[in-house]
Amino acid sequence: TKKITIAIDGFSSTGKSTLAKQLAKQLGYVYVDTGAMYRAVALFAMQNNLISVDSFDKVKLLTKLKNIVLEFKFNTELGFAEMYLNGENVEKAIRTIEVSGFVSKVAEVSEVRAKLVEQQQEMGKNKAIVMDGRDIGTVVFPDAELKIFMTASAATRAQRRYDELLQKGDSVTYEEVLKNVEERDYIDTHRDDSPLVMAEDAVEIDNSHLSREEQFEAVLDLVNAII
Ligand code: C5P
Q1: 35 assigned to a ligand binding site
Q2: Which protein residues touch ligand 1 with a CB less than 6 Å away?
Q3: Where does the UniProt annotation place the signal sequence (predicted)?
Q4: ipTM surpassing 0.90, yes or no?
């Protein structure tokens, strides 16, 4: 069988990472969560007081970009790689609603995108990779052999994210989560640099009414038709 690149894009909380992890495990491929990288940059900006509800010091963030080192380290117990920011495991810290509130603003900055895209292309240069994000099939790997574009209604997605955050013990309301999902959708689809759009040659999957297993089987069939 041949090694391919699988690009999975779509709106937030469509279950991209769940599908991508399942696929990577099944195929013995590397999985890369690019959202985690943007989240880590947002966390860095928060830690350095460069971003708050009413201000964002982009210029200062740009001067500090070279000080941001992002790495994925495989956790054998969890079975997937965790995000490290300057040597520190930030896997939990990047999943809070606060980071979710700032990440799309940070992801609008072209210099941030250029830095992360370069690192993502490097990680995928030998193929055998499943990468999820917003611009993987359009910008990072326009030649990917398989591109999936995932969608689901905003209410379905907010409910999923809300359940996830509750389980982790975060005290959030459903309305707060829905508002965040809608705001990120808006910013992600309207930014100038690499907006979230479906690549022309992507396969669209609306999973509002699909179980995880049904979705996985459908995508696995697509993979097997190629490899
Ligand atoms: O995938 P996740 O929801 O964790 O991504 C967080 C945010 O990072 C997105 O809402 C988007 O603003 C940004 N992002 C991006 N390009 C990617 C991955 C994520 O702009 N490839």
Answers
A1: no
A2: 12, 34-35, 38-39, 103-104, 107, 133-135, 184, 188
A3: none
A4: yes
Query: Stretch 7-34: mean pLDDT, rounded?
Result: 96
At 29 the three-state DSSP class reads coil
Residue-level pLDDT at 26: 97
Tell me the whole-structure pTM to 2 decimals. 0.97
Q: How far is the CA of 87 from the centre of ligand 1 (A)?
A: 21
Q: What are the boundaries of each domain within the chain?
A: 5-226
Strands (E), the chain: 5-10, 30-33, 51-52, 55-56, 70-75, 80-85, 88-89, 129-133, 146-151, 203-206
Residue 206 banded pLDDT, cuts 50, 70, 90:
very high
Residue range 5-226, CATH number: 3.40.50.300
pLDDT confidence of residue 1 = 87
Was 96 annotated as part of a binding site? no
**Could you give the CA distance from residue 40 to residue 38 in angstroms, rounded to a whole number?**
5
